User: Fold this.
Amino acid sequence: MSAAGGGGRGRPAARGRFVVLEGLDGAGTTTQARLLGERLRADGRTAHVTAEPSGGPVGALVRQVLTRRVTGVAGADFDPHALALLFAADRRDHRAVEIDPKLAAGIDVVSDRYTLSSLAYQGAALGEMEWVRQVNGAAGPPDATLFLRVRPEVALRRRRAASLDREIYEVGAFQRKVAAEYDRAIALLRQAGESVIEIDGERPVEAVAAAVWAAVSTL
Assistant:
């Protein structure tokens, strides 16, 4: 990334860049988002690291559903279509309240997950990827998505080693299905002209971070 322009007095700041880290649960997206934010700052940029579900009110509800703190009526499973709509609503709010104002101020934004996650996870849960894409249509694309490719069994092993907390999607068979949906979703976004860069997420953390930086520095 080139330095954000300051220019002469009265000139608006150059728009920041919006970069997304994606992958299966356990792929390392949270770690790499943090490291990318640190690298951007070290390079003289102003960077903001965020995540989805967001820290907003809808995002808080989504997190409670994912951890089964909130369920459907009488303890039933939460309706998967309703959950997909909550993800879309949180993304719209996240973009309007947090992401877009920072980009407009010349701040780079790095997000741990974005629309591609919904296409893969809600696409796998519902079998209706095109519908998921439509309800997320207003969110707008990032400047680049970096997909950390990790085999489902490796990602699940990492996730279980890192935390005792379990979310509703952390099941081996479902993660394999999500991995296949990621491939479909990546092809779909590329056909629409979006930039999706694949990185081997099974390498050591430092090697993955170097590959992430190499990809981002071309923006």
